[in-house]
Sequence to fold (224 residues):
Amino acid sequence: MSSDVRKIIYGTLVVFVATLVVWIGFLFVLGCQGTLGCSRGSPTPVRTGVATLLPATPVAPVYPASQGAAKCQVQALEVLEAWVNAKSPETEPFAVTDLSGATCTATLQDVESILSQTNLWYSGAAACVTCHNQTFATDAVGLDLSSYEGILAGSHRTADKPTGDDILGGGNWEASKLYQVLVTDATEPFGRPAGLDLTRVVVFAGTPESAPGVTASPSPSPTP
Ligand code: HEC
Fold:
């Protein structure tokens, strides 16, 4: 064999071995960070393009109590009935059942708003307090529905007779004068059109017992 060929063979072997040494050294430094543990050699976790570590439990929105969005939809009669049956509380909240059958917490303000709204019972309806207010002494039935004290004082009051006839049935809705005039006799709101169905009158009243929003079950912790 000529020395040229031998040189080429040896040269190739030397370059091959040198490349091998450099490559292993390169892996040792980069992949194993100079240790024999080769921490970087462990497989990387599977990654997707979609972020999967977002908080899985959305924060339930908190509505101020005055905001319509958090109000329940309840029959106006149901609000009156629940309030009367709860012994007409002034400050204590009471439970009403909304259109979906869920329980909501209503207050005296919900009752007062029903008694003082125009156009509530039918288009063009005067509010109860339009006719039954502080001028009760000169009113046909001596009734003031514009204040808590007035409602409790009842009807057929005169200036010198501060307490009239109970219109709340002593805390029993179906025995109350209110129920009688609104449902049994169907004479109020006074001047109402014939055939008016008061059960179809729905108001926003009370707030849901629990905060609205879906409570997600805690997500399983991501596997590393
Ligand atoms: C347009 C005026 C007017 C409006 C509005 C009105 N009322 Fe009357 N209300 C009267 C008159 C008048 C009487 C007496 C009717 C009678 O004696 O036949 C009366 C009678 C009553 C009585 C009977 C009192 C008793 O002891 O005899 C009650 C209770 C009553 N109203 C409640 C209400 C409620 C609740 C509303 C609202 C849903 C309302 N009224 C709306 C005019 C009105």
